Amino acid sequence: MPPAPPFANQDPSQLSIDQLAELLTFCDDAYYRDAQSPLSDAAYDRAKDRLRAVAPDHPVVHKIGAPAGSGDKVAHVSSMLSLDKCTMADEFWAWYRGNLAQSTGKPNSAKLDDAARQWAAQPAGRLVATPKIDGLACALRYNAKGELEVAATRGDGRVGEDVTLNAKRIANLVQRLPAGGPQGPLEVRGEVYLPLSRFASVSDQFANPRNLAAGVLKAKDSSAFPPENLAFFAYDLISQAGDVAPTTESAKLELLVALGFAPPPWRVCSGLDAQAAFDRFAANRATDDFESDGIVLRMDDLALAARLGVTSHHPRAAIAWKYAANSDTTVLEAVHWSVARTGTITPVAVVAPVTLSGATVTRATLHNVSNLLRLALRPGDQIEVVRRGGVIPHVERVVLPGTAAAVQPPSACPSCGAPTVQVQRDDGKGKSVLVLQCGDPDHCVAARQRSLLHFCQSLELEGFGDKVVEILIDQGLVDNPADLFLLRVDDLTALPRVGPTMASNLLAQVQRARRTKLPMLLVSLGIPSLGKQTAQLLAARGDLAAIRSMSTADIAQLHSLGDKSAEAIVRGLAEQSMLLDALLLHIEVETQMLPGGPGDGPMAGQVVVFTGAMQRMGRRDAQQWVIKQGGLAGDSVTADTTFLVVGGDELDSPTPSSKLKKAIKLRDGGQKLQILSEDGFFQNFGSVL
Ligand code: IVH
């Protein structure tokens, strides 16, 4: 754990100017020199904003980065500045209008709005938008021969740290400028970052990609995580030579591309489209291979940018429009253990309310016991909570540990008191983690409560929410979902806070559920891997009896279902067979089988797999057609497959697909499997089309 920042647990508005400066300097040094983030970005920004408000001229407000670390120093040819920032559309617009005001010599005020709107439509008012990459600023110096000579970090903006050796190993970095284009001496600036796809494999060992990228770039010994993993986005080109003289920012980016560099994705837009660009880049974040914390907007016209000039801190022609913070620091109040339907007990952090991406958050998942133990959480800890891409917030790290004892997993189920068991389980990403389970899930009240709630939700029984379900179980009225169908008005009106109207409404809902569609019933059982989509697939294949008699292989044949899911479904159906029988005493199941159905029709007993490009119909339709004819449609060739139907000209291809190869092997091994072209197949069976 790095040393704690001074005054970090105090409200910035309560700190003196000196204290704020000390806190910010501490954080800057840790961030720029040691690749550490002692505070969340949001907490850092609050402290900086406060200092800016109370002491706008304080040197710490205008400072850029931190002095270069222990490596050799490199003096920059021109200052590597920071960026001005805004977080809202009207702040952006004030900046944009300000640029017009500056260039026309008028004062910036709302009076200029109309003029700014007109300006937006002209080339002079054009902007270039790029994502603001969460990496490390880096300057690459090319000599007169076009060779990469020096790579340096930003440092404090004037003097950076020499990282040439590691930087030269970055995969997409230009080592030598191509012949025929502008030659050196010139400098390319941009952001070194670690692509998220490469970070994924080590994400459990490092706090975030930026820290790791910084560590790798500055490392003396890079054997642990080689710099070849890093990548570089170029956004600037500085040249003393007159032959490199683009007149717009976008032309500069194009020139960088011609030189072999990768700029960040960019869009040229008018001032009126900046919000749309912001929204577009924000939407792309979920699938981008890099982290970004906003967009950078730069005036496209370089002559204008030169006229606007720079402050000691940033160029006036550029601004970073930041995304709403999706992470912040808050206090851990307690760890709550939540018992799921399956008996899995998950640790949940209960935190002091904090706003993440615009929503108030008071709970954050801790995923599993391994993760809890890794974080060594204690009530009173200052923790960073992150909410990425609309998913459930989670606890990223401890910023400042509290003094209480670390939370341990309970030895008894918090719901039913049964001893808990810790089991190793795959976390869904191929990593084995410790998971806590109630030792007696079948009898566990919370587990039963969740099962009942899930049942009610799946059957859309209105009124059966958390509270009602809890009371029904607590009062011993309902032990399992089938008991719902035995409830009488008197039972319900005897309950606290349930009047006659509510009782009859609840019973009306139960009444309605006496006829239920098969997929809904299947989902209501709460079997792992048996969600809505799978239930629909199964229901298209047969009635409940048929589904209950399906083997793992039968189920695995269904579209996109793997063996593991199929096993879970077969096991779940067996485990729930008593409940199902009990439910069937009360429920009439509406089946939805496609006409025909399995076991009945010209394709009965056949298992058909399609491969290659089909001409007559799409693969899905072809599979549906087989099912209608009473056959099974598989996605992969297995020992059960009886037909492989090969679309396109793949049968004649010298490089058969893996499905075709496997089918040939099975057929030649004596299995009753026919390989047919699409035409051949439909000529045999198409009469029923
Ligand atoms: S334009 C004054 N474009 O953000 C330099 N900078 O917080 C303007 N950054 O120092 C450069 N992504 O290191 C630009 N798409 C992008 C960027 C970007 C990240 C960095 C840059 C700058 C820092 C300011």
Could you please describe the fold and organization of this structure?
With 689 residues, the chain is an alpha+beta fold. It folds into six domains: 1-60, no CATH class; 84-322, D-amino Acid Aminotransferase, Chain A, domain 1 (2-Layer Sandwich), CATH 3.30.470; 327-438, OB fold (Dihydrolipoamide Acetyltransferase, E2P) (Beta Barrel), CATH 2.40.50.140; 444-513, 5' to 3' exonuclease, C-terminal subdomain (DNA polymerase, domain 1); 517-590, 5' to 3' exonuclease, C-terminal subdomain (DNA polymerase, domain 1, Orthogonal Bundle); 607-685, BRCT domain (Rossmann fold, 3-Layer(aba) Sandwich). 34% of the residues lie in helices and 21% in strands. The chain has 25 helices and 24 strands. The strands form six sheets. Strands 12, 13, 14, 15, 16, 17 and 18 form a seven-stranded antiparallel β-sheet that branches. It has a five-stranded mixed β-sheet with strand order 2-11-10-3-9. A four-stranded antiparallel β-sheet has the order 5-4-7-8. α17 (518-524) crosses α18 (532-541). The longest helix has 18 residues, at 17-34. The chain is globular and about 85 Å long. The mean pLDDT is 87. The protein binds 2-(butylsulfanyl)adenosine (IVH). Residues 81-83, 130-133, 137, 191, 235-236, 264, 296, 314-315, 318, 320 line the site of 2-(butylsulfanyl)adenosine.
